[in-house]
Design brief:
The protein has 12 helices and 13 strands. It is of the alpha/beta class and about 400 residues long. The protein folds into 3 domains: about 45 residues, no CATH class; about 190 residues; about 110 residues, Translation Initiation Factor IF3 (2-Layer Sandwich). Strands 9-10-8-7-6-5-4-1-11 form a 9-stranded mixed β-sheet, sandwiched between helices. It has a two-stranded parallel ribbon with strand order 2-3. Bound molecules: iron/sulfur cluster.
């Protein structure tokens, strides 16, 4: 049971089944019972899944019946250095000179402008925009300012609107870069660990002190919605490291915390030969449960959850937030119940009808290939959007 907390639920999105059962009118108690009995899910995970699904329904309720509401993902695939566990589509700044990054930015703006026009043509309204990567704060302050104006100019829904800026690496954060999105954007500052030895070991070129400074800077600029990422099970870390890190993070009073379980990928620099011994399953479960209890104790609720192949302890990545600070974008991407558009290298667009994704268009991960193929990618999105409009 320790190794299989989700029993026979092997997919990335175990919450989908729970959402369906809620849709069929089952009570939370009945759902938990069925998950335990039929899917062999641990009781605490069955309860967690149900809690997440109920929270998501509450958050997405105002969007029901509005098929034209959509989200946009903007990809900035550059990072100051490569984290040892990373398998994302990100290029180190040493691989891409300033000129090339400028060319990439021009292409990215072109694609966002194109999607804005398409949204106007098809009557789409944006409800969330997520600027991720990579590390978007590797862009210059003037580029971030330009991006913020283009985002303001999108056709927005008159209801809930959310812009997230990932300022994941504290070593890229300056007041000039954060200012264009202050104070209304949701900001992600991602410590991953609050132990300098771990940060050095995993190739994050920043210190705990820089994390502190970044939080202080963001608060000074008026940001009221800050999310922090933490990874459970980083090499060399035990349960006490995780709880100490989380305690230090909670001292900054973030509005949300995402807990990732360390999940070694083939595409990352991680390897057993390098001497990294991941946490055992029982320890990972302990660390995760302690963290959940700490987050619940400060009033945060779990609101989105997904799993990955090879995830530590068979557990989950999970977002917690104070009420009203949940990321709508994260829910929409994990739920796969709505149209999501993507701009930039490695960005995905999902075309959904009747709550089922029928087409997934992924931009190439390599920034140079993306630029070369941009006209063809935009033409393909245009025809997919035409098709989407005519779907039920
Ligand atoms: S900051 Fe994120 S995207 Fe960049 S190398 Fe590290 S894990 Fe990968």
């Amino acid at each position: 049971m320790v190794d299989k907390p989700y029993g026979t639920l092997i997919g990335v999105r175990p919450g989908k089944l729970v959402d369906q059962l809620l849709e069929y009118g089952l009570s939370p108690k009945e759902i938990i019972h069925r998950l335990e009995l039929e899917r062999k899910v641990r009781r605490d995970r069955a309860e967690l899944l149900t809690r997440v699904a109920i929270n998501q329904r509450r958050i997405t309720e105002p969007l029901q019946g509005r098929r034209n509401l959509t989200s946009l993902y903007i990809s900035v695939p550059f990072c100051p250095s490569r984290c040892a566990y990373c398998s994302f589509a990100s290029h180190s700044l040493t691989q891409y000179g300033e000129k090339e990054r400028e060319a990439y930015f021009a292409g990215l703006i072109r694609e966002i402008e194109f999607l804005r026009q398409q949204a106007l043509t098809h009557g789409l309204k944006f409800t969330s925009v997520y600027i991720g990567g990579g590390t978007p704060t590797t862009l210059s302050a003037p580029q971030l300012s330009q991006l913020s104006w283009i985002i303001r100019d999108l056709p927005w829904w008159e209801g809930r609107r959310e812009v997230t800026l990932e300022a994941g690496r504290p070593d890229t954060i300056t007041a000039e870069k954060l200012a264009p999105f202050a104070p209304d954007a949701r900001l992600c500052i991602n410590p991953q660990s609050m132990h300098n030895e771990t940060l050095a070991a995993i190739g994050r070129a920043h210190t705990v002190e820089q994390i502190s400074e970044s939080f202080a800077l963001a608060r000074d600029l008026g940001y009221r919605d800050i999310n922090a990422d933490l990874i459970v099970g980083l090499p060399g870390e035990g349960v006490s490291h995780v709880s100490q890190s989380l305690q230090s993070i909670l001292a900054y009073r973030p509005e949300g915390v995402t807990l990732h379980m360390f999940s070694p990928k083939r595409a990352s620099a991680y390897s057993k030969e390098a001497g990294w011994v991941p946490m055992g399953s029982a320890e990972a479960l302990d660390a995760s449960n302690i963290a959940h209890a700490m987050l619940s104790a400060v009033g945060m609720e779990p609101y989105y959850l997904y799993r990955q192949r090879g995830i530590l302890g068979g557990l989950e990545n999970i977002g917690f937030a104070l009420p009203g600070h949940e990321s709508l974008y994260n829910i929409m991407v994990i739920n796969e119940q709505r149209l999501v558009l993507g701009a930039g290298a490695g960005a995905s667009s999902k075309f959904v009808s009747s709550a089922t994704p029928w087409e997934h268009q992924a931009n190439p991960k390599d920034a140079r290939v993306y630029l070369r193929r941009l006209p063809e990618l935009m033409a393909s999105k245009e025809s997919l959007l035409d098709k989407w409009r005519n779907e039920p």
